[in-house]
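quick one, 394 residues, struct below
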Amino acid sequence: HFLSSSIFLFPAMESQAPPYMLNIDSDQALYLVKHGASLLVLDFPQSNLFGFDLQMFSVGPYFMGFKMIPPGPHFIYYSAKSRHGNESSPITGFFINPAPGEVIVRRWDAKEERLVKLLDGTEEERYQLAVKNFDFDCQLGAYDIHCYRVWKQLTAYIDSSTLERLEPVGGDISVIAEATFADGHTAPEDKGKSSGRCFYTSIPHLVKCPGVSGSELTALNVDKSVLLETVLEQHYGCSEDAILGELQFSFVAFLMGQSLESFGQWKAIVSLMLSCEAAPLRRRTQLFIKFLELVYFELKTGLKPDNTANGDSPSLDASWLLDDNFLQLLYKDFFLMVREAQHVDGGLLKQARRLKNFLESSFSWVLEDENFNIANENEYAPTVVEEAEIMEQV
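---
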């Protein structure tokens, strides 16, 4: 059946109809069978929610994972239902980065209610061989390749180094673990087997430079191009793609994994970038072209999930942005800066206009209103530093 033009998936789902149908030609299907990766999931409870990249499903009794997975980064996330089935636990998720033909095996731990790696290497090899011999073929749903174009663009800058640098201990991203740390119940150095907290880069909100005048310090906080250069050099090895990879990692962890800490990191990076004036017009023009394109695609994907997908697509609640005017304030100033610059790259202007038009149409924002009220600026707004504050730093 691999070579047929239509491959029906998940016949064991709660509904009688498959959640999607894969229409591909025989050559493409054969290529995906040979070169695609597989995810084998053992003992996952029926009716629990299981998500793979852009789609989430309620699984049936025969579900055991996915096959024909394109190599590269993917995000797995799930939620356990209560005994009576009327409530679901918070999402837990993790990234995988399979090589061509790789078989990844996970088992459901009923006590901890999470997917775990197999501790016995021999047992894992036995399951991997069984998958390659097609022993579980009928229980593995084919990856929805029609959604892959969107997913690939959403994770274009995430690579193995991004995952190694940012993933929590154990790999699991969990809002419950984040809340535990926030409440002070667990010390950061005592992470345990699965901390749930990512190793995000610390992005300063305020530039502090002892020995400079108040006017100079204010200028450094109004235009954070110098801070961006410092962050790139100290934390990303001067790699522009590395900071974009962290931006994408945090957005996926927030949108699919419901990680509040990840939303805060996404917001911090966006705020830093939009607070720069010299960098986008001079040294870092290409970085900002990529950044604006990336944010546009993230918001478009999150706010308007693909209606062609029959699985439940995670979506971004617009109130996360509407109730917090940081993006509106910062982007208004950023767009005015780009528009009024004497010399501006055409690609930068194009991406800035596209994102501006999207934000105005999606949120009914007015980003060119000269009477726009900036009285409610929050912690991400430009900072005017008083002389007394300078003395405290010396």
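The chain has a mean pLDDT of 80.
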